[in-house]
Amino acid sequence: MINELVQNLIAINNITEGQELSFADALSIVEIYDKMPEPNNLIDEAEEMATYDIDALEKSVIKLKEESERFLNVCLPKLNDVDFKAIAQDYSRTFYNRYQKAEKELTAYWKAYCQLNNRLDYLDLDSQEYIEAEKLCEEAKAKHDERQKTVQRLYAEYEQANKESAPVFWFRADFPETVIVRYHDIASAILTDIKRIRECGS
């Protein structure tokens, strides 16, 4: 657990120290945060690990403390400047714009069908002109219905994008800050205990 946590902190720090956060970057940070263990679970693992490999424990906890400090001192100020709401909205807006464009285009298909359908009312049912107009009308309706499927698919994608972006929309930098401060304090306490154990054992 401790080593996995260290790797996750490294990942958050590397993402934050990189270029401007994309939606994928922001979502990765949120997902890593959601998987972070309860601080007290670290204490339980450390106590168990100290009984059989205190050197490995010390090495892992030193890295945990380093990455916690890196986050709190370097990355947290950068995350505080990130507008997670705007990132989420920009992501879902892309899908909304595609849907809106397709929906507007659908109106033209519907109008073309309606015009042909209305024309049938003024034609003789037995005339060749009616037969040709009816065929064009059916073709126009088929095109409209096919296009409508595209609009429905794009709307479904927009709805899915809204769901995907919701965790990013509600995320704040102080969420990981609170738990990483605890990780840092626990790491410091564990290192102090390891030092005491070694001094007592020498």
General description of the model:
With 202 residues, this protein is mostly helical. Helices cover 87% and strands 0% of the residues. It has seven helices and no strands. It has helices spanning 2-17, 23-34, 39-50, 54-80, 84-120, 128-170, 174-201. Helix 1 runs parallel beside helix 4, helix 2 (23-34) crosses helix 6 (128-170) and helix 4 (54-80) runs antiparallel to helix 7. The two termini are 29 Å apart. The mean pLDDT is 90.
Roughly what fraction of the amino acids lie in strands?
under 5%
Q: What is the N-to-C order of secondary-structure elements (H for helix, E for strand)?
A: HHHHHHH
Mean pLDDT: 90
Structural class: mainly alpha
List the helices and strands and how they pair.
Blueprint: H1 2-17, H2 23-34, H3 39-50, H4 54-80, H5 84-120, H6 128-170, H7 174-201
Helix pairs in contact: 1-2, 1-4, 2-6, 3-7, 4-7, 5-6
Q: What is this structure, in a nutshell?
A:
This protein is mainly alpha-helical and 202 residues long. It is built from 7 helices and no strands.
Please describe the structure with a list of short key phrases separated by commas or semicolons.
202 residues; 7 helices; mainly alpha; single chain
